[in-house]
Amino acid sequence: MVNEFEWNRMIAGKLYSPFKVGSDAWSKVHKAQKDFNDSEFWHDREPLKRLMKCFGSAPEDMVLTPPVYFDHGDRVFFGKHFYANTDLTILDENYVRFGDNVFLAPHVSIYTAGHPIDAEIRNTEVEYAKPVTIGSNVWIGGNVVINPGVTIGDDVVIGSGSVVTKDIPSHSVAAGNPCKVIRAITQEDHERWKREYDEYIRRS
């Protein structure tokens, strides 16, 4: 049974005990993700379908490439046409929400959990959790880490190896450690890639 006091503090971003929340989501998603990670996923979609039932929401056309790791699953909400390459890790103590058309490269890690800087308090094993929100039409490069409380806007590209500690605005390319906006995504970008795509279509 869920401890409402601990749950409410967790969702509010306040100190709480992860051992007292009481949800059974952890055991459900760990069983389902083990089965999926061990599956012949390239021709057997049933383990993925069982894993998808553990999420807050998941589109029928979503693609996950094992291995994957979720702490709870029920706090993750996927938009339409979601794709994640291998080794996605989401520590979803708080909510993680994705918009539509999100592509993740290998080894992306999303953390909602944090721990007190003060060692005495940290050693009591309390923690806090802050939500992560990722907009639509977002591409996140390999080995990116997204930290608690971050919001990434729509139409964003995050460069490989970035550590995202602060919000990233819509229509931008960002990279680095810490991750910072490099430049805006412009109409010129659209026209360049549209020309390349049109050429591809003509020749295919």
Structure in words:
- By secondary structure, the chain is an alpha/beta fold.
- It is 24% helix and 25% strand.
- It contains five helices and 18 strands.
- The strands form four sheets. Strands 1-4-7-12-15-17-18 form a seven-stranded mixed sheet, with no helix packed on it.
- The longest helix has 17 residues, at 187-203.
- It is globular, with a radius of gyration of 18 Å.
- The quaternary state of the protein chains shown equals single chain
Q: Give the termini distance in whole angstroms.
A: 57 Å
Low-confidence stretches: none
Q: Sheet with the most strands?
A: 7 strands, mixed
> What is the strand content?
15-25%
Q: Output the radius of gyration.
A: 18 Å
Query: Whole-number average pLDDT?
Result: 97
Number of strands: 18
Which class do the helix and strand fractions yield? alpha/beta
List its salient traits:
single chain; 204 residues; alpha/beta; seven-stranded mixed β-sheet; five-stranded parallel β-sheet; 5 helices; 18 strands; 24% helix; 25% strand
Summary?
With 204 residues, the protein is of the alpha/beta class. It has helices spanning 4-11, 25-37, 46-52, 119-122, 187-203, and strands at residues 63-64, 68-70, 76-77, 83-84, 88-91, 96-98, 102-104, 109-111, 113-114, 128-129, 132-134, 138-140, 145-146, 151-152, 156-158, 163-164, 172-175, 180-184.
